[in-house]
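Problem 12. The chain below contains 298 residues. Write out its predicted structure in token notation.
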Amino acid sequence: MNKSVALARRKEAPSLGPPITTADLFGPKVKKAVLKKTATSLATLAPLGVGLVGVAGCVILGSTGLFIIMGIVGGAVGAGCWAFNYFIRGSTIEAEHVSRLTQIMKQQNDARVARLRDEIILCRDIPDAAEYSEQGLVQYDNVARQLTALQTILERQLSPDEMTFGKFVGSAQQLALNIMDNLRIMVCTLEAVRGADAEVIRRGLQKLERQAVLTPSDQDEKAELLIRKKLREDALIEANRLADGNEKFITKLIQATVNLGRMRAGGSAQVDAESAMRSLLQVAARCAAYGQNKAADI
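Solution.
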């Protein structure tokens, strides 16, 4: 199924920049972004510019009082502004950065799955694939509804301005996207064997079985029909595996929402949310691995 996986993963969100993942919401990448924003802000650069003018004036025109004051004061104010923004306002800037990335991530995810629902519907007329098409539609709608419910409950438990809020939403979106990716892989897997009609294969094999003697060309035809039959059967098995796996991952998403709703308000809410968020990230990683057939366990 590697070709189907590759085809399914190839469609990326257009014109929204590099794909945002949960890795961009945590750890060194966020700290680096905060450092860059504080170091390149006007409040930091403007006084530093004055300081540089003062230093340049001292070097070129000599150390006059004005240039010395400009150099010292400009450098001190610039460094002070950076230190204040990074160490005092750093958490606020980080929360704003995570919130912005989460919004971009949602736009990218929406773009990636925009046509998926129609593609699932088109699988209905593939022989023996109708049940997977119906199940896929239900899963698609369930994930969309569950994400809305999760964010609604999260807004009651945490302030949208808190950094944990954005990271939790991003983690849930990543799990939802991975579930949708598995649906896309299922669609590609079924579409790949659209031409392997079970009835055509059955009639072809029956015709050959009725012949008393098979010529070399008949034997070749039988071999090709058997290969086609096996490919079709494998595709249906894989579609079933992906659909069953998605049911379990959707349950995990619902459970995370239920746990979120049970959180107590107050200081412990953020701690509980961070713990639930880490669990969501682990489930999202398992979901992605399951879709690529790299993990047998949910």
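Discussion. The two ends are 19 Å apart (CA to CA). Students who got a different answer should revisit the alignment rule from Section 12.3.
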